[in-house]
Amino acid sequence: MNQISIIGAGIGGLTLGNILKQHDLDFTIYESASEIKPVGAGIMMAVNAMQIFDKLGLKEKIESKGNKIHGICIADEKLKTISTTNVLALEKKFNSCNVAIHRAELQNMLAENLGFENIQLNHSLQQIQKIENYHLKFENGFETECEIVFGADGIHSKVRNQILKAGSIRNAGQKCWRGFTDFNLPEKYSHHALEIWGKGKRFGFVKISERKVYWYALVNENKFAEKIDLSETFRDFDSLVLEILESTRKENIILNDIVDLTPIPKWYAENICLIGDAAHATTPNMGQGACQSIEDAYVIGKLLEKNQNFNSIFEEFQKIRRKKVDYIVKNSWTIGKISQWEKGNQLRNFLMRSIPESINQKMVEKILKLEL
Ligand SMILES: Cc1cc2nc3c(=O)[nH]c(=O)nc-3n(C[C@H](O)[C@H](O)[C@H](O)COP(=O)(O)OP(=O)(O)OC[C@H]3O[C@@H](n4cnc5c(N)ncnc54)[C@H](O)[C@@H]3O)c2cc1C
C-alpha cells in the first residue's frame, strides 16, 4: 500500500511531487498518458510560480530553457498600444522573472527532479472508492490502496467527480488555437509578450526560446468557428500576425474550447484533496492556471512544515488559497469577455488606456505575491 497517491502528472501534480520529495514523504504519481507530453506548446510561468521554483532549486534551470519576459503589451489590430504592464520592478522585488517556456521542457524538468521512478505512466484512474483507505482502480487493470489521495487530474477530474461530486464546466464561447513556430521576431518582442485585441478575436505571441515563438488565437464561437481559416480571420491584423501564422506547420497547432470550473464549495474530503485545475480551473486570460496549481503545491508544503496531519492541512490549505483563486477565476472570465467584444471596441480601448499604470501594478502585485 502507498501512503500517498497523486492522480495526474500535469504541472500541479509534478510540482506537488517535488514538494513531497523535499519533505521525504513516499508518494506515487499515476498518469494516464504514456509519456510526459503535455498539450499546448508554450506557457508563461509568472513571478509567483518562479519564486516557488527558486525554493525547489529549479529557477536557473527553467530560466535557461525558457525566455525571460519583463512585460506584456495589449494593442489594437494596428499595434497601437492599449495598455502595457511592465513587471521589472516587481521582478526585482520578488527576485524572480516571468519565464515563457515550452511546456514539455518544463514538465520534463519537474519529472526528472522528482524522479521518473515515482511516476506510473499509462495508469488512467477509472474508479476511486473510500472504504477504510482509498481503493484505486485503473483502466489497465492495476488496483491499489492508499491512505491519502491528491486529485491533480485537471478540469475533468475523476477524483472530483467521484468523491466530491461537485463542479460544472462553464464554456466561455470562445475557440482557442495554440501553435509554435521557428520565427525571428522583431527585437522589441524579445522579452515582451504582445496580445492584440480585435473585434470578437484576439492574437497573442511570445518568444519561448532563441528560435521558437509560441502563439495563441481566440475567436468568438459561431457555427463556422471550427472550420475557419486563421490567416483569413486575422487578415485585418498587422502583417506580423499573418507571417507568424503562415510560418506555422499544421501539426504544430491545436484547438480547444475555452472553459473553466464553476467554484466548488469544498476542495477536500477525509484524506483526499484536489489541487490545480481539478479544484479551480480558470480561463487562461491572466496566464495563471498552472501558476495557481504550483502555488497550491507550495502551500501544502509550507503547511507540512508545521503539521503532518493531512486533514487539518487540507482545511487550512483551502482557507489560505480560496480568496486568491476565486479572484483570478472571476477576473480572468471578465477579461476574456471584454477582450472579445464585437462592438464598442474604440470606447473599450479608450477606457483601458485611461486606467492608471499604478492600478495595473497593484493588481499584478497581488497575483505575484505568495501568500505564505
Ligand atoms: C490556451 C491556454 C493557455 C494557457 N496558458 C497558461 C499560462 O501561460 N500560464 C499558466 O499558468 N497557465 C496557463 N494555462 C492554464 C494551464 O494550462 C492549466 O491551469 C494547468 O495545466 C493546470 O495544471 P494541472 O496540473 O492542475 O492540470 P492538467 O495540466 O490538466 O494536468 C492533469 C494531468 O492529469 C492527467 N489525468 C487526467 N485524468 C486522469 C486520470 N483519470 N488518471 C490519471 N491521470 C489523469 C492528465 O493526463 C494530465 O497530465 C493555459 C490554459 C489554456 C487552455
Question: Keywords, please?
Answer:
monooxygenase activity; FAD/NAD(P)-binding domain; FAD-bd; binds flavin-adenine dinucleotide; 8-stranded mixed β-sheet; 7-stranded mixed β-sheet; alpha/beta; globular; FAD binding; 372 residues; 18 strands
Secondary structure topology:
Elements lengths: L1 E6 L3 H12 L4 E4 L11 E4 L1 H9 L3 H7 L1 E3 L1 E6 L4 E6 L1 H7 L3 E5 H12 L4 E2 L4 E6 L3 E5 L4 E9 L6 H7 L4 E14 L9 E6 L3 E7 L4 E9 L9 H4 L5 H8 L6 E9 L6 E2 L2 E3 L2 H4 L8 H18 L3 H30 L5 H9 L3 H12 L4
Parallel strand pairs: 1-2, 1-11, 2-8, 5-13, 11-18
Antiparallel strand pairs: 3-7, 4-7, 5-6, 9-10, 10-11, 12-15, 12-16, 13-14, 14-15, 17-18
Bound molecules: flavin-adenine dinucleotide.
Flavin-adenine dinucleotide binds next to helix 1, strand 3, strand 12, helix 9 and helix 10.
Bound molecules: flavin-adenine dinucleotide
Please indicate the percent range of residues in DSSP E strands (runs of 2 or more).
Answer: 25-35%
Largest sheet: 8 strands, mixed
Poorly predicted regions are none
Distance between the termini: 33 Å
Q: What's the shape?
A: globular
Number of strands: 18
Helix proportion: 25-40%
- Please give the CATH class: Alpha Beta
- Give me the CATH superfamily: FAD/NAD(P)-binding domain
Round the Cα radius of gyration to an integer and report it.
21 Å
Number of helices: 13
Mean pLDDT: 96
- The CATH architecture would be 3-Layer(bba) Sandwich
Commentary on this structure:
With 372 residues, the protein is an alpha/beta fold. The protein has a single domain, classed as FAD/NAD(P)-binding domain. It has 13 helices and 18 strands. It has helices at 11-22, 47-55, 59-65, 88-94, 103-114, 158-164, 230-233, 239-246, 277-280, 289-306, 310-339, 345-353, 357-368, and strands at residues 2-7, 27-30, 42-45, 67-69, 71-76, 81-86, 98-102, 119-120, 125-130, 134-138, 143-151, 169-182, 192-197, 201-207, 212-220, 253-261, 268-269, 272-274. Strands 1, 2, 8, 9, 10, 11, 17 and 18 form an eight-stranded mixed β-sheet that branches. A seven-stranded mixed β-sheet has the order 6-5-13-14-15-12-16, with helices on both faces. The chain has a three-stranded antiparallel β-sheet with strand order 3-7-4. A hairpin with a 2-residue loop joins strand 17 (268-269) and strand 18 (272-274). Helix 1 runs parallel beside helix 10. The chain is globular. The mean pLDDT is 96. Bound molecules: flavin-adenine dinucleotide. Residues 7-13, 30-33, 40, 43-44, 124-125, 152-154, 158, 176, 178, 216, 256, 276-278, 284, 287-291, 293 line the site of flavin-adenine dinucleotide.
